[in-house]
Amino acid sequence: MSLSPLEIVFFIVILVMSIVIHEVSHGYAAFIQGDSTAERAGRLTLNPFKHLDPIGSLIVPIITYLLAGIPFGWAKPVPFNPYNLRSQRWGETIVAAAGPASNFLIALVFAAFVHLAPVFSLPSSFITICASVVLINIALGLFNLVPIPPLDGSKILFGLLPFQYSHPFRRLYERYSLILLLVFVFFLSYILNPVISFIFNHIV
Questions:
Q1: Is the dihedral angle over the CA atoms 11, 126, 24, 168 positive or is it negative?
Q2: Helix (H, G, I), strand (E, B), or coil: what is residue 123?
Q3: pLDDT tens-digit series, residues 69-94
Q4: What's the total number of domains in the chain?
Q5: Are 94 and 29 in contact (CB under 8 A)?
Q6: Would you call 23 a catalytic residue per the annotation?
Q7: Which of 179, 87, 96, 81 is nearest to 144 (CA)?
Q8: CB-based contacts of 15: which residues, under 8 Å, 6+ apart?
């Protein structure tokens, strides 16, 4: 199904705000564990201009929508100091997981709105907006769980591995991360579509 230019802009706006919440969640996850780096950098805010990355927040979403049918993207990483976290073993993993978790939470909340809309006789346009928020946040959450640096999935993977394996594996993996990420975004991201559709259909 093709979208009008206005609908594409609407999707991008939803994606941008979802990315912002995603990044702020990283910052708060670090903050509640004792690290105030993001706060000092002014990144614990929902102001999108503090978080947007020209490539990841605009160009990549448009290109991936045209290639895969679902817009993906990212923002500037929220800074944090892992040495300030209370848990040196799991702190960084918790910070990484907070981003995708926020997207899945948003998806569940707006899926609930979709189910409640008929009860309160809300217009179909409201249902469409909520469904769009659900779809984009499922896609964003899953995309960021892909274990390729600098996506959150790689940090979660490194955190789950024993240190003697994670450190050399991280160095090797990050050396080729840009190539791997570009290949995935432009040639393999379509493999997420069936998973996105499955989750969307079951909660909406």
A1: negative
A2: coil
A3: 666 667 788 899 999 999 988 999 99
A4: 1
A5: yes
A6: yes
A7: 96
A8: 57, 61, 71, 73, 136, 140
Which stretches within the chain are classed as H helix? 5-31, 37-40, 54, 60-68, 91-116, 124-144, 152-160, 163-175, 177-183, 193-203
DSSP class of residue 189? G
Pick the catalytic residue: 7, 23, 92, 174? 23
- Provide the pLDDT confidence category of residue 137 given band limits of 50, 70 and 90: very high
Joined together, the tokens standing for residue 142 give 């899953």
Contact partners, residue 168, CB within 8 Å, separation at least 6: none
Structural domain that includes position 87? 5-203
Residue 118 burial (CB < 10 Å; 0-12/13-18/19+)?
A: exposed
- pLDDT, one tens digit per residue, over 93-135 is 999 999 999 999 999 999 999 999 999 888 888 999 899 999 9
